[in-house]
Amino acid sequence: MIRFEGAGKRHPDGTIAVEGLDLEVPTGRITVLVGPSGCGKTTLLRMVNRMVEPTSGRVLLDDTDVAKLEPAKLRRGIGYVIQQAGLFPHRKVIDNIATVPYLLGWDRKKARARAAELLELVGLAPETAKRYPFQLSGGQQQRVGVARALAADPPVLLMDEPFSAVDPVVRAGLQEELLRLQSELHKTVLFVTHDIEEAVRLGDQVVVLREHGRIAQLADPHTLLTSPADDGVAAFLGRDRGLRGLGLRPAKAVALRLVGDGLRYGGWELALDDERRPIGWIDRGAGTAELQPSAGYHPDTDTLRAALDAAVLSPAGVAVALDADGRAIGTASREAVLAALTPVGLAPVRTDKTDTVGVTNTVDVTDSAGVTDSAGLTDTVGRTDTVGGTDETGAADGADGGR
């Protein structure tokens, strides 16, 4: 567990970044810090690995004051992921991942074997190991950054807006990958973001911060979206927080009309190929055989938001439920999706109500010494990094900006 007890940071010029914060980050869970720029999110996160030293209060890691721990040793026991990955440009991917094991004295064979395991764990092909960072896409670099943070199997993972520099599609994939990894590894994760949608998707608990690191609300995502603490929090969450809430609820709650029941919806029919995969909607009412696109979702893995989106995009107003192989198992109208919504605090209830929707089947490392990255790590010669870390000699870092 990470615990902040009256933690504060006042810079020499009198600027207050954080003032008197009390917060517990539960073991094995994802806690997300979210708030406007300058509210102290990153300052708080960097207090944990002593890249920022609090000027008041203390930060405890498993009941030990981190101020009593040697900085370099502390950091090697904490995973750290930042924007744009912060990889060593002169090192191949496999040696980037193995950075902390090397610093801990692992032999090269053991460190590289661990790096190869992590490549697979984060979904990268084995041949990626021999590439340099500049040969990777932004999303691939971030995956390498996550793998590097996990290399020595640290119990704590600090993530400072790690997915903000990639496009929305890649970001969604990385978020899904983090949730998958967390379901397997159960790390204690402190995650910083300015994106409320990312916060509610990833967090077991979400901490909304105001100026000077003051807590405006601490809650699970569902409570945060449905019961904001005040008008300020509600404004920060945005007017579409109800729609965001749909993204927290499983699509399997939607009652389906199964394909085998001879489905039809008004004048529309859904055409399937011989393997029961949807190929489009036919408007029988218009007397045309022209196919209109169908939109699908996966009940076992998607959310109500995905189901509703598929229904809205469908010309028939009906979403197609698909199995893992893309075969149709049933359909759900917009009304069926909305019927799955239940009063706040109650579990979704599956109903027997079905619509009259129809389906028709149709045919058919060597590196050079002394280079440092930007993520708070030092390489084997122990130089100071570029964001204010402390090297193995104990040299002090620079002041943090209070972001």
TrEMBL record:
GO molecular function: ATP binding
Organism phylogeny: Bacteria, Bacillati, Actinomycetota, Actinomycetes, Kitasatosporales
Region (Disordered): 368-403
Tree of life domain: Bacteria
A Pfam family per the record: ABC_tran
SMART domains (UniProt xref): AAA (SM00382)
Organism expressing this protein natively: Kitasatospora cathayae
Protein name per the record: ATP-binding cassette domain-containing protein
Compositionally biased intervals (Low complexity): 378-403
PROSITE patterns for the chain: ABC_TRANSPORTER_1, ABC_TRANSPORTER_2
UniProt KW keywords: ATP-binding, Nucleotide-binding, Transport
Family: Belongs to the ABC transporter superfamily.
InterPro entries: AAA+_ATPase, ABC_transporter-like_ATP-bd, ABC_transporter-like_CS, P-loop_NTPase
Domain ABC transporter: 2-237
